[in-house]
Amino acid sequence: MYRPPTSRSNRSFYLVAMSAGLLLALSMYTACYPVGVSIQTKTRVNMHGGVGVGNRMHGLRTQQRFNTPPPRHSARGSGFMPRRSPSHTDLDMSDFEVHRRTYKLFATQNPDGEVDLRAKAVSFEVDEAEKVGVDLSAELEHHGEMRKGQIAKNGFRYIILKNPVPAGRFEAHLQMHVGSIEEAEDEQGVAHIVEHVTFLGSDKRSILFGTGSESNAYTDFHHTVYHINCPLVSQGTVALPPNTKLLPLALDALREIAFEAKMLTSRIEKERLAVLSELSMMTNMEYRMTTQEICELHAETILPKRFPIGDEATIRKVHPDKVRAFYKRFYHSDRADLFIVGDVDLDETESLIKQVFEPVPPSPTYLARQAMKIGALAGLKDYNETLEKSSRF
């Protein structure tokens, strides 16, 4: 029969013995099962002027999870760690394993004790595809309910996918092929400011308020995306009568955002403050860890010097004319892709897209490329071929 210790000395000895036993058990467990670190990262910059907290941050939207893998004999997962794969082998205590959604990185320690995150990088998705015999070079089969096209006049591209679920709704994404990597050294953060100014400065977007629609925008390294989730018809608001078709209004709003933004100085100054507010909320451990990871993985590229949130000093002093010049330089119809998915009619939607976006004037670069194509078809000498011949000895 167990009897608790009575005297103070006996109680002290009992506590010391219990502590030693726990430490011994913990050391034996960690010796058998190495500590695992799981990090999942999704790069995304939100817009709206609002600020995300916790794992939802502007600049880099991250999810970082730390945990210890369960014992081998356990039939239950840890809740956070991905299921063990054949390559998830035991490592020495001096090693640790980093799991990402796209890449599996093996970080090893060199003799000096420094961790080299770039020791080895293997594409996890490619490996998994090869295991099941998927040919990644093959083209995807054409979807029967999808239609894609391009407006010849200005190069505007679109893809429509009919999807009846949920019924009576659609989602439109306008993707501009311009992101933070397009910024010059004295423009860091301008792409993000332009996203704010164009999106929040749209008058036509405000017409959709109260209709059950949702709209948002974000900037990343390579793209700026504006998206609207909307019912097909209005139920009736102050600005719109019942049964008003909302797809034409949504497309009008996207056209204004991308190609007809006013870029007022007052709006630029207002969004400058909003971006600075976002930046001030990102000085936390999660953001610093994620940026460091990107710096290690992409050290040879410009990405570590062009984070979408921008540079604070540049954001504070950049002139409104430089913001307008950036918008004018990159926001053209041939740099845009429109994606519409929802309970829509393909013919009607395609006709509406052409009606809304065909009047957008083409960019000079698009006209120049078209002229070169026409010249090549007419039998004119190709410029690159002529240059190659003239450079031969």
TrEMBL record:
**Start and end residues of each Peptidase M16 C-terminal domain:** 318-364
Keyword annotations for this protein, in alphabetical order, are: Hydrolase, Metalloprotease, Protease, Zinc
GO:BP terms for this protein? proteolysis
Top-rank taxon, per record: Eukaryota
Q: Which InterPro entries match?
A: Metalloenz_LuxS/M16, Pept_M16_N, Peptidase_M16, Peptidase_M16_C
User: In Gene Ontology terms, what is one molecular function of this protein?
Assistant: metal ion binding
SUPFAM superfamilies noted in UniProt: LuxS/MPP-like metallohydrolase
Q: Which residues form the Peptidase M16 N-terminal domain?
A: 163-286
The segment annotated Disordered runs over: 62-91
Protein family according to the UniProt entry: Belongs to the peptidase M16 family.
Q: What is this protein called?
A: Peptidase M16 N-terminal domain-containing protein
